[in-house]
Protein backbone atom coordinates (compact mmCIF):
# COMPACT_ATOMS: atom_id res chain seq x y z
CA UNK A 1 0.00 0.00 0.00
CA UNK A 2 1.32 3.37 -0.90
CA UNK A 3 0.10 5.63 1.89
CA UNK A 4 -1.37 3.25 4.45
CA UNK A 5 -0.37 0.04 6.11
CA UNK A 6 -2.46 -3.09 6.30
CA UNK A 7 -4.22 -2.02 9.49
CA UNK A 8 -4.76 1.65 8.61
CA UNK A 9 -6.56 0.93 5.33
CA UNK A 10 -9.48 -1.07 6.78
CA UNK A 11 -9.90 1.50 9.55
CA UNK A 12 -10.16 4.25 6.95
CA UNK A 13 -12.56 2.23 4.79
CA UNK A 14 -14.84 1.49 7.77
CA UNK A 15 -15.01 5.24 8.53
CA UNK A 16 -16.26 6.17 5.03
CA UNK A 17 -19.87 6.05 6.19
CA UNK A 18 -21.39 4.84 2.93
CA UNK A 19 -21.85 1.47 1.19
CA UNK A 20 -18.09 1.26 0.55
CA UNK A 21 -17.54 0.89 4.28
CA UNK A 22 -19.33 -2.48 4.16
CA UNK A 23 -16.91 -4.15 1.72
CA UNK A 24 -15.50 -7.49 2.83
CA UNK A 25 -11.85 -7.19 3.81
CA UNK A 26 -9.75 -10.29 4.51
CA UNK A 27 -6.18 -10.33 5.75
CA UNK A 28 -3.99 -12.70 3.74
CA UNK A 29 -0.64 -12.66 5.44
CA UNK A 30 2.37 -14.65 6.54
CA UNK A 31 1.71 -13.37 10.07
CA UNK A 32 0.00 -16.40 11.56
CA UNK A 33 0.00 -15.77 15.30
CA UNK A 34 -3.22 -15.28 17.28
CA UNK A 35 -2.18 -11.70 18.01
CA UNK A 36 -1.97 -11.04 14.25
CA UNK A 37 -5.50 -12.40 13.74
CA UNK A 38 -6.78 -10.29 16.63
CA UNK A 39 -5.10 -7.14 15.27
CA UNK A 40 -6.62 -7.71 11.83
CA UNK A 41 -10.12 -8.13 13.23
CA UNK A 42 -9.73 -5.10 15.52
CA UNK A 43 -8.65 -3.05 12.49
CA UNK A 44 -11.99 -3.83 10.85
CA UNK A 45 -11.17 -6.83 8.69
CA UNK A 46 -13.80 -9.53 8.34
CA UNK A 47 -11.35 -12.41 8.50
CA UNK A 48 -7.72 -13.49 8.68
CA UNK A 49 -5.95 -16.12 6.60
CA UNK A 50 -2.34 -17.15 7.10
CA UNK A 51 -0.20 -18.10 4.12
CA UNK A 52 0.10 -20.51 2.49
CA UNK A 53 -3.60 -20.24 1.76
CA UNK A 54 -5.66 -23.36 2.33
CA UNK A 55 -8.58 -23.30 -0.13
CA UNK A 56 -10.98 -24.97 2.31
CA UNK A 57 -10.11 -22.43 4.99
CA UNK A 58 -10.50 -19.60 2.47
CA UNK A 59 -13.97 -20.83 1.53
CA UNK A 60 -14.92 -21.09 5.20
CA UNK A 61 -13.70 -17.57 6.02
CA UNK A 62 -15.46 -16.17 2.94
CA UNK A 63 -18.73 -17.90 3.87
CA UNK A 64 -18.53 -16.46 7.37
CA UNK A 65 -17.72 -12.97 6.07
CA UNK A 66 -20.62 -13.07 3.61
CA UNK A 67 -23.03 -13.55 6.50
CA UNK A 68 -22.22 -10.00 7.60
CA UNK A 69 -23.20 -8.39 4.28
Q: How are the strands ordered across the major sheet?
A: 1-2
State the helix count.
3
Separation of termini? 25 Å
Count all strands and give the number: 2
**Averaging pLDDT over every residue, what do you get?**
92
Residue ranges: pLDDT <50 for 5 or more in a row? none
Percent range for β-strand residues: 5-15%
Inertia-based shape: globular
The major pleated sheet works out as:
2 strands, parallel
Fraction of residues in helix: 40-55%
Helices and strands, in N-to-C order? HEHEH
- Rg (CA only): 12 Å
Class based on secondary structure composition and strand pairing: alpha+beta
What does this structure look like?
By secondary structure, this protein is an alpha+beta fold. Helix content is 41%, strand content 12%. It is built from three helices and two strands. Strands 1-2 form a two-stranded parallel ribbon. Strand 1, helix 2 (34-42) and strand 2 form a beta-alpha-beta unit. It is globular and about 30 Å long. The termini are far apart. The mean pLDDT is 92.
